[in-house]
Amino acid sequence: MERTQFNNAVEQFQSMVYRTALHALGNPQDADDAAQEVFFRLFREKKPFEGQEHLRRWLLRVTVNYCRDVLKSPWRKRRASLEEVPETPVFDRSEQACLYREVMALPEKYRTVLYLFYYEELTVREIGELLGLKQSAVTTRLSRARERLKEKLGEAWQNE
Amino acid sequence: MSNRNFYQETFSQVRGSRDIRWEDYQMMRRRAAGKRLAVIAAAAALAAALSGLAVAANFFGLGDLLLPEQGSVNVTDENGVVVPGEYEYKDFVSLSGWSDTPESQALAEWQAFQESYDRDGAIIGAIGNAPTGFEERYGNYLVYTQEMADRLEEIIAKYNLKLHTRMEVVLPETWPLAVGDFFRENVTPWSGYIYENGTFRFDGGAELGAGELKGYGTIEYQFSRSVKGTFDDVALNVGDLSGFEEWGCQTTDGTPVTLGLGPRNRSLILADLGDSFILINVLTGREGDDTFSSGPIGREELEELADSFNFSALTPARAPDFDGIAAANTRYMEELERQPLEVTPEESKDPLYTRTGIQTGTARDFVLLLAERLKDGDRQAVAELFAYPVQIETAGGAYAAGTPEELLEHYDETIGEGVQGLIADMTWDPEPLPPEIFSDGSGLASAANGTVWFGLTEEAVIRIFTLQTDQWSIRPAGGITQG
Question: What CA–CA distance (Å, rounded) separates B368 from B283?
């Protein structure tokens, strides 16, 4: 990919890739590694993108697939339980820190769906296509994740 | 506030901590190319020596490594997206040794148990990330219920095996201290981990210079050394082993190895060292692998990779010095912090370089050069500083120019119109002063208050991409095509 396009993509989508990987992998260090790897794949990518949305979807898909490979990797799986609990970032408000902590305490399958739905504003159908899940499975995961957040966060999380 | 707003406000404050820069990737590529040339001659000589030592018959083959049951994996479409509800069965191998060893038989039983246990994930789903109470003894295994713990104990007792008790990360330059000098100079081990008994694994790269890889040969692999007598629950999906071409040979340090060249993008190197077992999962085969940027390989390259390791240095296996590893890791990290982005200190302090790949001093020289040529009225020399083709827009119309000569036809109505102003913006009186140069993240540098934009071309030379005033502009035709 050409430098200008690449730099624009980094500027626009680095945080998206990082947050997606953070939700999938649950660890800032691994998420940083993932972002570096995903953009390296973009750097090597030769095919043109049809626009920003096409690029965004490509990056999301590559990130999700990369994280899935990492989670499946026999090398990593055995390490995960020994890693220290990462520090919580600093937030403007205490309820935001609570939300971050509770989201990161959820199992991976809930975290990624939550992020794609609430942050990236993908539809249930789009999330299903991206993750290779039936729409009913996405809905179930969303529903269970919301229940858990409601249980942990109380009034701060609205009933839906 | 809606949940969506709450979520977005929260996670918009979460960002990665690393800079991602085109220049770093470019530098990695160039560095790899440079290093490759240096090792080709030596590597080719080693490969030639190795190929004459083929061992003809009665070696243990890949089939002797297979676990008795195939494992199910998701089916993916041509875009790598999982197809819901569709599975295919693949061959799995043990990393611990041939399939008739206690370690591999124990792994097969454990795998069979895991296949049948908590299939819908209900138990682990309920536990989530909460502590299970099984971490202390089973922290290196996927055990989260008493039933799993009991089954694992039963298996290791049956095969007289121990459990791993400790594991530590090993950073790239710590490997010689952790394990010894077991790799040659064309091999780069990245970070990995090591257990209390000397079992270790890491991902790595290797520069190869023989056969089809001559001239561009970087490949990636995963290296595993499993010390016998301890249960290890890692199994490796190798797809379909029936398509592998396999043969045996002996490395130059006298170690017999089994080699399996895959038809697509995976290959294997195996060595039984007596007290430990080596499995190298090579991330390429006869077709190559785009994901890992590894080109296709043949027998020569696989033999060359096998000969890139000094396996005899790995036996007898010994327990690692964890304190020494921790100290070496710390030294490595401190060194990294001193050189954080693999660029020279001068480069890392230069924001313009970060954004454009052009050091500030060089950029200033270029602006000075342009100013000098404008001042001298050297039209041809000015026109030669542009990246072509360009699109010219003036009050009188729009024109295309593919060469300096074509631009000169419109010089008077563009550059000639505003030349004094341009010179004033880019030069200094009475003595030259450093011009103001900035970059907006587009990859281009700008001077003269946004009048001129310049950057590196694909040929890595600096050229003007845009020159513009309120009355006219000269811009790249069909968009910017930088290097």
Answer: 50
